[in-house]
């Protein structure tokens, strides 16, 4: 059974290959991937590694948690499933509107009826 690990505080120069190479010291790595910004393609500073067995995952956590790599102390822990996270409030742009925008009845721009002074 594979165990997925979360690796945080990675140097931005870390690649999928270098992450796989690092974790192969602890055992067989099934997959290793760095999470990247979908627009710029730049690393977001964390990633995931799947180890072949639970024993290898425990060994990887013991060996690499709090290890310094390129001046950054990485954190390694067992990954939690996404459903453990609380749901996000609000919605998309069309569903969620913030109060305070537009003009109020008295012509103010901030919804409270007061005009704010402009400071130049």
From TrEMBL:
Positions in coiled-coil regions: none
Pfam family name, one: RRM_1
SMART domains per record: RRM
Basic and acidic residues composition bias: residue spans: 79-102
Keyword Repeat assigned: yes
Domain RRM: 3-81
Renumbered residue ranges of the record's region Disordered: 71-120
Record-level Gene Ontology MF annotations: mRNA binding
CDD domains tied to this protein: RRM2_NsCP33_like
Superkingdom as given in the UniProt entry: Archaea
Keyword annotations from UniProtKB, A to Z: Repeat, RNA-binding
InterPro entries assigned: Euk_RNA-bind_prot, Nucleotide-bd_a/b_plait_sf, RBD_domain_sf, RRM2_NsCP33-like, RRM_dom
Designated name of the protein: RNA-binding protein
């Amino acid at each position: 059974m594979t165990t997925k690990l979360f690796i945080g505080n990675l140097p931005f120069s870390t690649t999928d290959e270098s992450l796989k190479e690092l974790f192969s010291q602890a055992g067989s790595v099934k997959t290793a991937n760095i999470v990247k910004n979908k627009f710029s393609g730049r690393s977001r500073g964390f990633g995931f590694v799947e180890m072949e067995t639970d024993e290898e995952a425990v060994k990887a956590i013991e060996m690499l948690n709090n290890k310094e790599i390129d001046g950054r102390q990485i954190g390694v822990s067992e990954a939690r499933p996404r459903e453990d996270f609380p749901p996000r409030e609000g919605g998309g742009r069309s569903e969620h509107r913030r109060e305070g925008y537009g003009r109020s009845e008295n012509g103010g721009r901030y919804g409270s009826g007061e005009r704010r002074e402009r400071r130049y």
